[in-house]
Write a structure and sequence with these properties.
By secondary structure, this protein is mainly β. The chain has one domain: Sandwich (Jelly Rolls), CATH 2.60.120.10. It contains 3 helices and 14 strands. The strands form 3 sheets. It has a 6-stranded antiparallel sheet, with helices on one face. A hairpin with a 5-residue loop joins strand 1 and strand 2.
Length: about 160
């Protein structure tokens, strides 16, 4: 099975950050804004989940969310998650099936971290799932502006230039 198979089989659509996705779950119940941290501007579903597929040569551009995001590996080759925390520390997480190579099938990206994803192997793809709680809303999604990120984290210039649009 290749990327085209999964894109067609799962009905995936282009995602603004790169790659393809489809929301597969949004809880029927929600949390009212008054019970959430002030960074949320309204009610949110308890939880949401998507399929996400990244195919060579694309990448998931640096972005951040207001909620933690849990990444689950399903198929394809390993995916590298690049995280820059608010203090500027870089963390590299490998999402995949081979613990001997530092891969784990589940990884968590903390709320507020800038992060991007790329494929480890050329000519490959990765099919993953992403779960967010409180649930994802596009108003909680911020796509990085290259120049602003470079001003904030000049020590990561090469990575930021490679993983922004």
């Amino acid at each position: 099975m290749d990327a085209r198979f999964w894109i067609e089989q799962l009905g995936l659509l282009p995602h603004p950050e790169g790659g393809y996705y489809r929301e597969i779950y949004r809880s029927a119940e929600s949390v009212e804004a008054e019970h959430l941290p002030s960074r949320y501007g309204g009610d949110r579903a308890f939880s949401t989940a998507i399929y996400y597929l990244l195919e060579h040569p694309d990448f998931s551009a640096f972005h951040r969310l207001k909620s933690d995001e849990i990444w689950h590996f399903y198929d394809g080759s390993p995916l590298i998650l690049w995280l820059i925390d608010p203090a500027g520390a870089l963390q590299v997480l490998r999402l995949g099936r081979d613990p001997a190579r530092g891969e784990q099938p589940v990884r968590v990206v903390p709320a507020g971290c800038w992060f991007a994803a790329s494929l480890e192997h050329p000519q490959s793809f990765a099919l993953v799932g992403c779960t967010v709680a409180p649930g994802f809303d596009f108003v909680d999604f911020e796509l990085a502006e290259r120049e602003a990120l470079l001003r904030q984290f000049p020590q990561h210039r090469a990575l930021i230039e490679r993983l922004t649009r």
